[in-house]
Amino acid sequence: MQQAEALRVLVVHDHPLLASAIAGILEREPDLKVCGIARTGAEAAVAALNQRAAVVVMDFSLPDMSGPAAAAAIRAGLPNVPIVFHGAEESDTALLDAIDAGAMAYLTKSATADQIVEAVKRASRGEVLIPVSLFAKAIARRRSAVEKEAERHRRAGLLTARELEILELLAQGESTADMSHHLGIAANTIEWHVGHLIDKLGVHSKLQAVIAAARLGLIDVGKPEPD
């Protein structure tokens, strides 16, 4: 009986030691064969086609382009080749970008040798290793971030330039008297503005106003004071 041909895997990574380590892990499997190592997305697109890669294991960030862009370049020549991303980026954006790029799996740099091998073999069978629950949570967090940004813009639109200026001074710990001197306007005018911005932010105190504004990104409470 003729032995089945080993699965041809292309490794794409710009770090030579890590690329060699991944290749070594895969080569230990009798049914896997590393058909090449590429350092850039452009090299990967050529190598994948020339070497007839059955699976591509690639870093999410390459010197010449992003992982998703490299995946698109590879698939221009091999439309159906499975892509297994392997990267340090663990953000929701990276995960969703990987999914948009058609990734069969997204492994972090902490993935074990067994997990890398399993991802390659299962990807070759058309299995997606990104759990639906993980994808759903990433979508929910992104939606929450979008809603927060929309709320920030809405709130920012309600506040006047003077109110934003006063918020910045409140965040720096200035008193009404300090702000009156700093801005050259009467103390009662300062308090009038403070009352308005408290109402607009839906809070009940100056401290709550600063906290709410910081959470909405309207002010930067970590901004260093000038020398």
Query: How many distinct domains?
Result: 2
**Spatial separation of the terminal alpha carbons:** 80 Å
Shape assignment: rod-shaped
Low-confidence stretches: none
| Quaternary structure | single chain
- State the major sheet: 5 strands, parallel
Structural class designation: alpha/beta
Q: Any idea what the radius of gyration is? A: 27 Å
Q: Counting H and I runs of at least 4 residues, what is the number of helices?
A: 10
Assigned CATH superfamily of the largest domain: Response regulator
- The proportion of strand residues reads 5-15%
Description:
With 227 residues, the protein is α/β, with parallel strands linked by helices. 55% of the residues lie in helices and 12% in strands. The protein is built from ten helices and five strands, in the order βαβαβαβαβαααααα. It has helices at residues 16-27, 41-50, 67-77, 92-100, 113-124, 132-158, 161-171, 176-183, 187-201, 206-215; strands at 7-12, 32-38, 55-59, 83-87, 105-108. Strand 4 (83-87), helix 4 and strand 5 (105-108) form a beta-alpha-beta unit.
Describe the structure using short key phrases.
5 strands; 5-stranded parallel sheet; Rossmann fold; rod-shaped; 227 residues; alpha/beta; Arc Repressor Mutant, subunit A
Briefly summarize what is shown.
The chain is α/β, with parallel strands linked by helices and 227 residues long.
